[in-house]
Amino acid sequence: MTELTPLASLSGGAVVGLSAVLMMLLEGRIAGISGIASQLVPPYADTSAAERSAFAGRLAFIAGLVAAPVVHAVATGGAVVQAVSANLVLMAIAGLLVGFGSVWGSGCTSGHGVCGLARLSRRSFVATGIFMAAGFATVFVMRHVIGG
Question: Could you tell me if residue 40 is inside a domain?
Answer without folding.
Answer: no
